[in-house]
Amino acid sequence: MNQLNLEKIATQLESDNSRDRLLALVSLRKVAPEDAVPLIKKVLYDDILPVRSMAVFALGVKPTEECYPILVDLLQTDDDYGIRADAAGALGYLEDTRAFEPLVRAFYEDDSWLVRFSAAVSLGNLKDERAKHLLMEALDRDEVILQQAAISALGEIKAIEAIDSILRFADSEDWLIRQRLAEALGNLKSEKSISALNFLVKDSHPQVKTAAGISLERLEKS
Questions:
Q1: Residues 6 or more apart from 102 whose CB is under 8 A from it?
Q2: Which terminus of the chain has fewer CB atoms gathered within 10 Å of its CB, N or C?
Q3: Are 94 and 68 in contact (CB under 8 A)?
Q4: How much is the pLDDT for 222?
C-alpha cells in the first residue's frame, strides 16, 4: 500500500466518527504489519469499546515484536474484561510460545469466565503440549463454556492421551460440547475416535452430525 493510502487511513483513525475509525482498522488488512501496527496503536485506548476491541484483535493478526508485550500488558492490567479476553485471543493468533505463562495465569487467576475461555482457546492455538494438564483439569470445571474450550484446545494440541477424558462428553446435553468433541476427534486418530464419531454422526443436532462427518473423512484420508 502506498504512502498516500496510509496517510488516508491515519486521518480516518483520527476522525470523530467511530464508524470511520472502525472502517480504517478494516482497511489495515492489506497493510504490512510494520506499517499497520503504528496506526493500530493510535486507537488502542479509544473511548469507544468496539474500536478498542478491533484494534486489539488487529495486533494479533499483524505480528511485530511490539505486539507481544502490548497484548500481555492488556491481558494483565486492563480494567475491561472484554479487552482482556480480546488480548488473550490475540495472543493465540500470534502463535508465540512466550504467551504460554501469561495465558495460564489468566486462566487460573482472572475473575472473568470470558477471559478464561479465551485463554483456554489460545492455549490450543499455541499447540504447546505444556497446556495438556491444565486443559484436562478444565474438563472438570462447572462452566460448560470452559469445557467447550478445553475440548477444542486438546484437539488442536492433538493430545491423544485425552481421548478417554473427552469421550465422556459424547452424550452431553449441550450440543456445542458435542460439536466441539466431534471436531476435536478429527485430530485424534484412534479406534476410539472413529467409534465415537460413528455415534456422533447420528446425532440429533445437524451441526454435530456435520462436524462428525467431516472428522470421519479427515481420519479416513490420514
A1: 72, 75, 76, 91
A2: C
A3: yes
A4: 81
- Our count of domains for the chain comes to 3
pLDDT of residue 207: 98
Cell numbers for 133: 494438564
CATH value at residue 122: 1.25.10.10
**Whole-structure pTM over 0.85, yes or no?**
yes
Contact residues for 29 (Cβ-Cβ < 8 A; gap 6+): none
- Please name the residue that has the C-alpha cell 465422556: 168
Separation between Cα atoms, residue 127 and residue 158, nearest integer Å: 8
Q: What is the mean pLDDT of residues 88-117?
A: 95
How far, in Å, CA of 7 to CA of 5, rounded? 5
Q: 1: pLDDT confidence band, cut at 50, 70 and 90?
A: low
168 burial type by CB count under 10 A (0-12 exposed, 13-18 middle, 19+ buried): exposed
**Please, which pLDDT band fits residue 5 given cuts at 50, 70 and 90?**
confident
Domain that holds residue 129: 65-157
Cell of 94: 500470534
**Pair 41, 98 in one domain:** no
- Give the span between the Cα atoms of 130 and 4, in whole angstroms: 46
Element (H, E) at 53: helix 49-61
Specify the residue for cell string 488516508.
Answer: 8
To which residue does cell 496503536 refer? 41
Question: pLDDT per residue over 189-201, tens digit each?
Answer: 999 999 999 999 9
